Amino acid sequence: MNLTSITLENYRNYEKLALTFSPNLNIFLGENAQGKTNLLESIYVLAMARSHRTANEKELIRWHEPYAKIKGEVSKKNGTQLLEMVISNKGKKTKLNDLEQSKLSHYIGAVNVILFSPEDLSLVKGAPQNRRKFLDMEIGQISPLYLHHLSSYQTVLKQRNHYLKKMPLKQKKDQTYLDILSEQLSEYGSHVLFHRLSFLRKLERWANEIHQRISYRKEILTISYKCSADIEQSASLEKIQESLLKSLKENEQRDLMRQTTSVGPHRDDLIFNVNDLNIQTYGSQGQQRTTALSIKLAEIELINEEIGEYPILLLDDVLSELDDERQVHLLEFIESKLQTFLTTTNIFHLKEKLTIEPEVFWINDGKVERKRD
């Protein structure tokens, strides 16, 4: 799939902007704080209905303006699709082919994007919530049903935690109500876990192959799911639900004391091993970055496997964080395979590594100009 054009109105530092793109490599070139990442971000927001940089959507609206609008045309194997997102103080509205979408789950997934930024290099080393967010965002792109179950799980989790907080230990608890909440949580949570485990099996297969290529067959990468509940990772959906409910029951008194739910998908994590060594704890920075790169490239292949076409790749100043060898692996992987958008302050270090001619956009203070040699 390719983003053939985009139109911005009142988006961050762009008052009005209309661009068309190459189906191969597009480079946003310019000094810092001129709008390169804003432009890249707008593509992500168009696809994912949220920003990767801020949770405050009002920041996306140009100063003193009532709304921001992003429109894009996407070419896919089954035809062209028009996407539109309007962000205002009243919230956000999305359209597909000029039809307003009542639910975001109906909109997300119309176009698939993979974002790789310097923050993603800390996917391996960073906090567990980063890895859970990674799972939720990437699975949600290819499975609207996952987003439905995740949203339902989060709603019931909030209700259960609220009940645990308002119910003092000395006060007689409503066991029936707590049982209902636990049963609902195990039902939705089992679907979330089943999706995650299935996704990880596929991701590990691709990531290990790519990791071995990058390490010249010297390293084997494995990814395991660290579950807070006592769950067998190859279990059926029904068995996962039974095990999750059992774990919730077993931890009920502890949850009442701590006033929070201690087991479930919201507490889980991922473990990355290279040659059977936990690299989150013992790996070198090079191994951690190679693993993060392998995972990102694996996502690309996994989405292609799932939907039958490659996603759009967004590289936000990530090349400056990779050494020459990893840069070469990344550029060799993407060239002529998928549409890529890349931000950088300097193009000269890329010229000798590229075999195709990129489309270069010079960005200065919210103004964009096609750069010709």
Short structural description:
With 373 residues, the chain is an alpha/beta fold. The protein contains eleven helices and 15 strands. It has a six-stranded antiparallel β-sheet with strand order 2-1-4-5-6-7, with helices on one face. A six-stranded mixed β-sheet has the order 8-12-13-3-14-15, sandwiched between helices. Strands 9-10-11 form a three-stranded antiparallel β-sheet.
Describe the structure.
- By secondary structure, the chain is of the alpha/beta class.
- It is 42% helix and 24% strand.
- A six-stranded antiparallel β-sheet has the order 2-1-4-5-6-7, covered by helices on one side. The protein has a six-stranded mixed β-sheet with strand order 8-12-13-3-14-15, sandwiched between helices.
- The two termini are 28 Å apart.
Q: What's the topology here?
A:
Layout: E1 2-11, E2 14-20, E3 25-29, H1 36-48, E4 67-76, E5 79-88, E6 91-96, E7 99-100, H2 104-107, E8 113-116, H3 128-142, H4 144-166, H5 175-214, E9 221-226, H6 237-250, H7 252-258, E10 269-274, E11 277-278, H8 279-282, H9 285-307, E12 312-316, H10 324-334, E13 340-344, H11 348-351, E14 359-364, E15 367-371
Parallel strand pairs: 3-13, 3-14, 8-12, 12-13
Antiparallel strand pairs: 1-2, 1-4, 4-5, 5-6, 6-7, 9-10, 10-11, 14-15
Helix pairs in contact: 3-4, 4-5, 5-6, 5-9
